[in-house]
Amino acid sequence: MEKKQGKNGKKAGKPKPGMRQGIIRNAVFVFAAALLFSAVVFYCYVSDYYKADRAAAEALKTDEVSVEKTDYGWYFDGPSEDTALVFYPGGKVEETAYAPLLHSLAAGGVDVCLAKMPFRLAVLDRDAARDMIEMYSYEKWYIGGHSLGGVMAADFAAGNSDLFEGVILLAAYPVKELPWQMSELLLVGSEDRVIRMDKVEEGRQYAPDYYEEYVIEGGNHAQFGSYGRQKGDGTAAITPQQQMHETIDRIMDFVNK
């Protein structure tokens, strides 16, 4: 068999050592540049988030509910001795934006562990609930969340049915089948333009045997928290206080059945 010939009839040989080193340096440089660019893009993405408003700051104060900052986030300790909720915040939303809602739930008889997620994205710590449950000795646990946080909460619950009585989803939906013995509550605002309703429809097929769904007339996506308007959301026809009160009533009815 003839060996391949280079130009001018010379035999083609291996790259010289200096040439190989140059190729490697260029490859390393391109990889490092791509990695740096990705890091910058990610940093810019996670740095632009929805911040908790003044009402949220007020709800972090202790009164009849003890509010404690913890390693995992925040603990709202009210009169309950047997029932608690793990709550995952929405994507790119400061976790304390849910303080008014969760403070009121604790006052009503459901203590709450609020997770602080890495870069405010629950998808980066779906299993956060496990450590919280191990810290306390409640008889009944629920897990829930808002938007992306709710999706991740349902995802964790799907594989851990022994830990929870049920799932509470605010403008969210499951993407896996929930065990039949659990219960599910879904709340969505009629003016929500952020949540994909086709995903909500798809999520209904994953619901457990006991399933409740309520539309809050006039409510939107952002008013489940206290962080102002959200890009792409609909205009609410009710006040944030009205939406929050209806949300609390529905949740309390659900856990007390």
What percent of residues adopt helix (DSSP H or I)? 25-40%
What class would the helix/strand composition place it in?
A: alpha/beta
Number of helices: 7
Radius of gyration: 25 Å
Morphology call: globular
N-to-C order of helices and strands: HHEEEHEHEHEEHEH
User: Biggest sheet: strands side by side, in what order?
Assistant: 1-2-4-3-5-6-7-8
Number of strands: 8
Q: Could you tell me the mean pLDDT?
A: 89
Which blocks of ≥5 consecutive residues have pLDDT under 50?
none
**β content, as a range?**
15-25%
Biggest sheet details: 8 strands, mixed
Q: How far apart lie the N and C ends?
A: 84 Å
Describe the structure.
The chain has helices spanning 17-47, 54-58, 99-108, 128-135, 148-158, 197-203, 240-255, and strands at 66-69, 73-77, 83-88, 111-115, 140-146, 166-170, 183-189, 210-216. By secondary structure, the chain is of the alpha/beta class. The chain has an 8-stranded mixed sheet, with helices on both faces. Helix 3 (99-108) crosses helix 7. It starts with 16 loop residues before the first helix and ends with a helix. The mean pLDDT is 89.
